[in-house]
Amino acid sequence: MTHRIFGRAIVAAIVVALAALLSAAPAGAADPAFQAWLKGLWPEAAKLGVSRATFDEATRGIEPNLSLPDLVVPGRPEAPPRGQAEFVQTPAEYLRESTLSNLAAQGRKLFLQHRDTLARIEQRYGVPGAVVVAIWGRETAFGTYKLPHDAITVLATQGYYGKRKDFFRNELLYAFKMLQDGVPRADMRASWGGAIGMTQFLPSEFYRHGVDFDGDGHVDIWHSVPDALASAAQQLAHKGWQAGHHWAYEVKVPASLDCTIADPEHLKPLKDWLGSGYVPAAKTPLASDLGERASLLMPAGRYGPAFLILKNYYVIKDYNFSDLYVLFVGNVADRIAGLGPFAEPWGKVVQMRTTELEEMQRHLAALGLYRDKIDGKAGMRTRLAFGAYQKASGLALDCWPTRAVLDHMRARAAR
């Protein structure tokens, strides 16, 4: 009996010790397939000029960071997407007046400090200095925000477990190349999406758009303000920025407006909009844009400002694919350049949960009103389809998604 008890005690001790070891192990250590996948990237990294020594050093000890958003981990229930602030906050939350005014005040000081550099940037790339300063402010609070993650770890995790594996896998390969080309690992701090530097570039963007604007022989988007801002300007120029043109104009809309015409495909010259009752909300020079084609944007439906948006609006949006991001950057840039805040206040609308918006998008798609991806975001095409549903159903028309109308869709589908 004594031997049996002693044997059980040994087994129990071993179980406890194993449990302790497993609980102390890194999150990714239980998946050797991740390590095999990571090592399997070597041939492609070599094609980009990465040496074996650089590759081995970069991947040594890397374990996935399973706390990142947008991951699909086998055996783990999929967590609700945290998403970027641009897609989970209401316009009023994201575009707080205090935030915009404070950032613009800092931006004006930095604009004056770097005035000569910004003038040369605009001369070369056609992008106003106020715009790149506003991007700098939004992305990293003018370089004061310390990015929380190691870029290699983020890109490896997203490349293996993320929802856009091929995209992040390619960015990881370019991150290896950056290390090979002399970028210190300490500088490779990133957002959860792998963006790096003062103006938040992905590694492939660093190679497509990076500029040595200070003339020291290398592109430094971490410590050189001229390089970081010129790189942002070159990226906008490469995406089609139109020199001498504005990005958008806030307007007062006719009282009888049908908000379903806030459609990016509903284009006509700016002068035609103005001639049909749309009144500029600020005394902004319009002459250079009167012949430009514009569309109407109502980010909060009938509960906030309306804008006539031009081609440069979409160029900024290509930097970060969010209407609220463009409005943030554009408004801060306008304030730096001497203009004021939004004339119309943002209404206190409620942002629906991602799962609810996805359900709504599926209902709208089934009715043939929505033909975009199911992403749980209240973007312009979702708002447009929602407005079309309100209109077809005889509901009050405001083009802002609500749970009440989702319930109406559910009841209709159940009939």
From TrEMBL:
Top enzyme class: lyase
Signal sequence annotation: 1-29
InterPro entries (alphabetical): Lysozyme-like_dom_sf (IPR023346), MltB-like (IPR043426), MltB_2 (IPR011970), PGBD-like_sf (IPR036365), PGBDSf (IPR036366), SLT_2 (IPR031304)
Transmembrane segments: none
Residues forming coiled coils: none
Protein keywords: Lyase, Signal
GO biological processes: peptidoglycan catabolic process
Gene3D superfamilies with a match to the protein in the record: 1.10.530.10, Bacterial muramidase, PGBD-like superfamily/PGBD
Domain Transglycosylase SLT: residue ranges: 34-334
GO MF term set: peptidoglycan lytic transglycosylase activity
EC number: 4.2.2.-
Name this protein carries in UniProt: Membrane-bound lytic murein transglycosylase B
